[in-house]
Design brief:
alpha/beta; Arc Repressor Mutant, subunit A; 6-stranded parallel beta sheet
């Protein structure tokens, strides 16, 4: 009898962890082998358990989840990564796949979709939901023309501004830390609002705080 595929799951909250564990342990051929709640525990668990698949959020508490994806894929051949997050796939799926992830789904998706993604990835495929597929293909093929009202991905600098905003940095502090002018920081803020379709600075701040804290939106 073939061995069950080993899956490492996040421990962001007891509810999420329990749900993923129960879901996958009830599926034939899938077994949750361990859990992790931050970068160091995840890397240690990958070394200890040698999972076939890691389910992880893009935004772990200690470090950029994208860097973590790269670390896993570069140093643990055979271990695949499925991003399972509350953050919009249209905005972040491209970055996750470019970093090495084999799939990206949002936590609002059904349990059946999660299992479908897991099985598809374990068979060697790449999984994103239909909503993100068209945008992902356009972005990764270099086509930057998008339909009216469709969210656009943020640049690395814009993501840095968003993160620092969520951490409580003022525009002046961000400018000093990033070695740019305050005017440049303010321009980045306006670009973020425009790209994400946000109508006010308070909306932007709320999103920044959620982003920095790794909050989930289902």
């Amino acid at each position: 009898m073939p061995r069950a595929s080993r899956i490492l799951v996040p421990h962001d909250t007891p509810t999420i962890h329990l749900g993923l564990s129960v879901l996958n342990n009830r599926q034939a051929g899938l077994k949750v082998c361990g859990e992790a709640h931050d970068r160091s525990s995840l890397l240690k668990a990958v070394l200890d358990f040698k999972p076939d698949l890691v389910v992880a959020d893009v935004f772990l508490r200690e470090s950029s989840g994208l860097l973590l994806i790269g670390a896993i894929c570069n140093h643990h051949v055979g271990t695949k990564v499925l991003v399972h997050t509350g953050f919009d796939e249209v905005l972040f799926a491209e970055r996750a796949v470019r970093a090495g992830a084999a799939g990206y789904i949002m936590k609002r998706e059904s349990a059946a979709t999660l299992v479908k993604a897991v099985r598809h990835i374990l068979k060697g495929g790449i999984y994103v939901t239909p909503r993100a597929t068209g945008s992902l293909l356009h972005q990764m093929s270099g086509h930057r023309n998008r339909g009216k009202g469709q969210p656009q991905p943020l640049s690395d600098r814009e993501l840095e501004v968003l993160r620092r905003m969520g951490q409580g940095f003022t525009s002046r502090e961000m400018a000093e830390a990033m070695h740019v002018s305050i005017k440049t920081v303010e321009a980045h803020r306006e670009h973020i609002k425009a790209k994400l379709g946000l109508g006010s600075s308070p909306e932007l701040l709320r999103l920044a705080i959620q982003w920095a804290q790794g909050a989930t939106r289902c």
